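@channel sequence for tomorrow's demo:
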Amino acid sequence: MFKTLLKVRPRMRSEWLCILTAVYLLIFMNGTFWDKSSVFLKGDALALFALGTGLLAGFIALTVTFSAKYVIKPVLIVVILASVGGAWFMDRFGVIIDGEMIRNAMETNQAEAGHLITSAFILHMVLFGLLPALFIVLVDIVHRPILKKVAVNLMIILSCLVVFGLAGLSNSGSFIFNIREHRDWFRTLNPVFPMASAAGFLIGESKEQNIVVQPLGTDAKVVDAPTSGLRKPRVTIVVVGETARAQNFQLGGYARETNPELSKRDIVYFDNTSSCGTATAVSVPCMFSVYGRKDYSHAKGLATEDLMDVLTHAGIKTEWWDNNTGDKHVADRIKKTEFFKSNDPRFCDGGECLDQILVDGLDAWLEKVDGDAVLVLHQLGNHGPAYYLRYPQDFAKFTPDCRSVDFDTCTPETITNAYDNALLYTDHILSEVIDALGAHGDRLDTAMIYMSDHGESLGENGLYLHGAPYMFAPTEQTHVPFVLWVSPGLRKSSGIDTSCLAANAEAAHSHDNLFHSVLGLMQVDTQVRDPALDIFAACRTGASS
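structure tokens (generated this afternoon):
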């Protein structure tokens, strides 16, 4: 059959194949871009025509650049396949494929990725990616002699660049205004922005290969280090939530009972809290970093020790339990357990585990604690799009709930129902953590801090999931829940006034507070702790901070 296809395969000059590819990419792989363009340039048909003409010229110039023997086919095939994949996620979920989105994808695991590789996605890739790629494979490309090819290619490229420039200048005022007003507009231009982001990501990765971690807070010490019987050991559990947005937290005024158990606990809820990023790969290392959101970068995070290291320098036992996709290098130098690799049939299926696995061994761990300790529990939480897999059936309170990873088969109401059920389950997990800590109050002074890494879009303005560039990310992706519980024993021994904390709960807080507040809670003195970012510093009575 393949030999028969070769006999009847079409013949085409190389430049025409490039032009055909450019037309295909611009028209069929840019649904999101053209939707935005039609809205932003509404009523200005001339500007919209100039935009299409200029971009087509630019796409042709770009593809013709690779019109050379042995180069043209592999390059065009790779570009088409990458564009088709990118178009699926941009058009379906409204995501923007920037460097951090690429990092998040690179650091995911097989189970998480499997929820996105649906049958609909595979069909999309076959129809719009593999079939055009097969056409390119089969086409008999006619190449000109080398010197003539260079001359023709240059003529086409230069002509297209002139058209591109004139089209931009003809409506520059309209274009510049809309680019300033809508900074996400050209970030949806496929495959230009995604491939530029991929190149930037790879360059950044190569520069980070030889980073040497620099020590931080080596002067750290506990100001009232425990001596025989003078005080109880302090234990703080930091729960890192996943994809929990504050808008759906009952504690923050949400109409549904998504926090029925926490509502009955003596907690403080900080309602006005913002995340460091909109994806796990950014937020988790950032929230444990000494750098605030404005100063943080991935390279800085890798090059500097973090909160867990400073606590270790102070002589505090630190440990990390992970039920997500990893610690993102935060726990590189401490003891960690990766529960997501477990095959425990009570909690795990298909490479993922319910968060109950994090609580299962907590009581036994607390029994063995004999000194100050900080334990981090990294949840799977509300990670989408498979919200329905994040909770057992007993927690399916809001029904009907979307039981698919393909949102096209679900209504917005059922998607929200599944999401809220997963929050309800997180509420249960956090309450179990509090109860376990409280049960050891006779010999330990304990506390729990819960912060989600980022939020989630549930269809607002056509957006789903998370990972939008922070500069124009919606509040649904950056407004996160922040819960604090402090045992009566720790309040008394450390002089923590929870009524003072509650009075300040409506003030603006962020992931920037975590690093300094955990140090303050554990009574760690170090030059790297900033009292202004320690939520406990101004709310102590009868004890020094």
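heads up for whoever presents: The chain is about 45% helix and 10% strand.
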